[in-house]
Amino acid sequence: MEFGPYLMLATLEGAVSAAVLALTAVGLSLVFGVMRVVNVAHGEFFMLGAVVAWTVAHWLGGHPALGFALALVVAPVAVGGLAAVADWLVLKRIGYDPERTIVATIGLLYIIQQGALMGFGPEARPVEPPFNTRLALPWIEWGEEGLRLVWPWGLATTSYKLFVILAAAAVLLGVWALMARSRAGLVMQATREDREMALAFAIPVGRVYAGVFGLGAGLAALAAVLIVPIQQAHYLMGGDPLLLSFIVVIIGGLGSLPGTVLAAVLIGLTDGIVSVFFSPTLAKILATLLVAMVLVFRPQGLFGSTAR
Amino acid sequence: MRGGGARAWTLHLAVLVLLLAVQFVLPAYHHGNLARIMVLASYAVGYNILFGYTGLLSLGHALFFAAGMYGLGLAIKLGGWAAGPAIVAGLGAGLLLSLAVGALALRTSGVAFMIVTLMFAQAGYLAILYFGAFTRGDEGFVIPREARMIMWLDLADAATRYFVALALFALCLLFCLWLMRQPLGRALIAIRENEERTEMLGYDTFRLKLVAVAISGTMSAAAGAAYALLFGYVGASFAAVQYSILPLLWVLVGGAGTVLGPFLGTLFMFYLIDIASGLTTAYMMIAGVVLVMITLFARSGLLGEARRRLWGWLP
């Protein structure tokens, strides 16, 4: 394959990971934005989503689309519920102190991860995609008789990958609508702006926090359900999404939703494209160093404008 | 802490004498474990100087531990150095890295400091994997027995290993006890209690914190180098996130800001995880449960609680 089609293929792969990354990172960003805490266990909620998806598909049997559709509902609700319980049992009791929350969520990370190892086992388990038609893609070439379409061998994607991109975009629109257009969003914004004032206006801040923590975890779980037919469910799969979400949230400006989505697309695409041409390890080294430098020299993020 | 000077020195020397004596009665398995625990406890003592005394929570100390380990290991493996100079290489690597990371990371504070140190350590871990041609990545490499000699001391021998581990631990422990009675140590504690006020009193807090990072990082590197030399293995798993979290866990369990706490925490967690790993493969579950329990119920750890309730003089 020549360079052009190759780049297009890399971009498509990058777009899939960017879509999933955006969902995961928006979950982390919501939690940070409203609650001002960093949830280190976020990657494990992602992993739980994939594990629940596998479990649902496995027990239901039948056509893969059935299990997948059910998992799309069950996984976010179950994982979100679990996160809300964890918030109520642990985070609420330590008063959302930023540093202690990190230590506590590191503890949660190990509990969830090792719990999955005990219940789910150490194997990587595949989930069948609900539909998976191969779509060959054309490439425009400058031939002797002007522009013409060619169909390079190997330049193809699947209907499922396109569905992942569209579904992620739809969910992100939903989150935006929730935050900007609904009463629940207004309540969350108020809590984020000024916790004490929100309390004074009889906003149940405790319940808002539990809800936001659950919503953030639910988004991660949803992202995992979408990716699990392409990746595979494994109890250690939460590490990479956590690291990448950190990177995205920091580059995008802590707590800013549009910045987070923009950064996710940027990082996801670059990661996809760079890993095709360079070593993925080198790409990760550069990305982590970049994040550290952004935090040191531009703590409001690359796209954030308000200095804190 | 005031007034307990003589008592404190007596207590810590007594602990060291006890550790010296106990090796003659311990069965081989626990003898080896205790040597390992003392090396890891030296790491925890180093971590505690930054976390417990200066109040800076780093999530990237595995970078310094690994710097000592790989500084020594690569000097032996690639440079063919003797153990003595290789130790200096390990310490030097730890010192340089901690100064560099400190100079950058200390421009931030709180949660950002944790994430920056975490990112630097992650970059270091990935770099070890990336340069697999030299480091042999995940698999790691073994330090041959003939390289594990300091003059006439054969460090592969169990009794010698115990003595060297004890010597390192004693050095770190007594240094920590001494440091916290010096003006420098007092200033670090003042930063933990109230950084703005310390700055107002005329202290250059950035420089003091940098010194704390350097001391803590170099001590961690010393533990890493000793671990490689005493147990003969250098591997990337020692640079992974888990080895940044473990010293935090040990110090929290034993008591942050206490001199003996890191040792007690390491001892306790080592055996807890040792027992758990006999029962299940998911033994890190224990670490998670303990971390959550400590943040919920025992903020000051074992010795911290003891100091609060029983012995106010405990350093």
Automatic annotation (TrEMBL), chain A:
Record localization: Cell membrane
Membrane topology reported for the UniProt record = Multi-pass membrane protein
Main location group: membrane
Can the keyword Transmembrane be found in this entry's annotation?
A: yes
The molecular function GO annotations come to: transmembrane transporter activity
Keywords noted in UniProt: Amino-acid transport, Cell membrane, Membrane, Transmembrane, Transmembrane helix, Transport
**Which Gene Ontology cellular-component terms appear in the entry?**
plasma membrane
**InterPro entries assigned:** ABC_transp_permease, BCAA_transport_permease
Q: Transmembrane residues, as ranges?
A: 6-33, 45-62, 68-90, 102-121, 160-179, 199-230, 242-269, 276-297
Annotated Pfam families: BPD_transp_2
What's an example GO BP annotation here?
A: amino acid transport
> Which family, according to UniProt?
Belongs to the binding-protein-dependent transport system permease family. LivHM subfamily.
Q: Identify the PANTHER family for this entry.
A: ABC TRANSPORTER ATP-BINDING PROTEIN (PTHR11795:SF442), BRANCHED-CHAIN AMINO ACID TRANSPORT SYSTEM PERMEASE PROTEIN LIVH (PTHR11795)
Name of the protein this chain belongs to: Branched-chain amino acid transport system permease protein
Q: Which species is listed as the source?
A: Meinhardsimonia xiamenensis
Automatic annotation (TrEMBL), chain B:
- GO MF terms held by the record: branched-chain amino acid transmembrane transporter activity
Q: Which GO terms describe its cellular component?
A: plasma membrane
What compartments host this protein? Cell membrane
* Main location group: membrane
Q: Which residues cross the membrane?
A: 51-74, 86-106, 112-134, 155-180, 210-236, 248-273, 279-298
Quote the InterPro entries the UniProt record gives. ABC_transp_permease, LivM-like
Q: How does it sit in the membrane?
A: Multi-pass membrane protein
Q: Which UniProt keywords apply?
A: Cell membrane, Membrane, Transmembrane, Transmembrane helix
Q: Which PANTHER family match?
A: ABC TRANSPORTER ATP-BINDING PROTEIN (PTHR30482:SF17), HIGH-AFFINITY BRANCHED-CHAIN AMINO ACID TRANSPORT SYSTEM PERMEASE (PTHR30482)
What is the recorded name of this protein? Branched-chain amino acid transport system permease protein
Species of provenance: Meinhardsimonia xiamenensis
At the highest ranks, the source species' classification is: Bacteria, Pseudomonadati, Pseudomonadota, Alphaproteobacteria, Rhodobacterales
